[in-house]
């Protein structure tokens, strides 16, 4: 294998992703919004004007094509949660807002990454084994490069990305966090 490549400018620095920073530093806020032109721009503008630092923003239509769900991971230090919720609630096209505590949410992120593989079958085999171990999928192969997809918790995606670095990452895209409330309640801690 080739030596680890330095992270690209503006790219992931191992251990720096939001999952490694600890839950208290971030809020996960989901907003159900009307699926209309300009709504995402208004939400992003609200955060920008108020100086809120967004770590991740993902948006997609729901099962009802009148609405989209926006998942926003916000830095706690840039603004208190109450202020974020009040500002979002003022936007006309926002239907509902929910905060998801990490222990009460199912969180996932997707990674698409292209890595180099040397001419030897051993390096290709090492990559295939790593992808299998993480339950990823090879979605494209060409020449000396392979594109891999992995969906999982942010920390699992971080770990996988770090282990891919020695292969030589040539392109990388992460979706950002998406989350939904857990279906089964989290048991309360019992006093000892």
Write the layout of secondary structure elements.
Elements: E1 26-34, H1 39-50, E2 54-61, E3 67-75, H2 81-89, E4 94-100, E5 105-116, H3 121-133, E6 137-142, E7 145-152, H4 154-164, E8 169-174, E9 178-181
Antiparallel strand pairs: 1-3, 1-4, 2-3, 5-7, 5-8, 5-9, 6-7
Any key phrases for this structure?
Alpha-Beta Plaits; globular; 9 strands; 192 residues; four-stranded antiparallel β-sheet; alpha+beta; 4 helices
A few lines on this structure:
Helices cover 23% and strands 36% of the residues.
Provide a descriptive summary of the structure in words.
There is one protein chain. This protein folds into 2 domains: 86 residues, 2-Layer Sandwich (Alpha-Beta Plaits); 76 residues, ACT-like. Chain A, domain 2 (Alpha-Beta Plaits, 2-Layer Sandwich), CATH 3.30.70.1150. The chain is globular. The protein has 192 residues and is of the alpha+beta class.
For this structure, what is the CATH homologous superfamily of the largest domain? ACT domain
Number of helical regions: 4
Binned, the helix content reads: 10-25%
Oligomer: single chain
Mean pLDDT: 83
CATH architecture of the largest domain: 2-Layer Sandwich
Structural class: alpha+beta
What percent of residues are in strands? 35-45%
- The CATH class assignment of the largest domain is Alpha Beta
CA(first)-CA(last) distance: 51 Å
Domain module count: 2
> What is the CATH fold-level name of the largest domain?
Alpha-Beta Plaits
Q: In sequence order, what are the helices and strands, one letter per element?
A: EHEEHEEHEEHEE
Secondary structure: number of strands: 9
Mass-distribution shape: globular
What are the low-pLDDT stretches, counting only 5+ consecutive residues below 50? 1-24
The value of Rg in angstroms is 19 Å
Could you give a short account of the major beta sheet?
5 strands, antiparallel
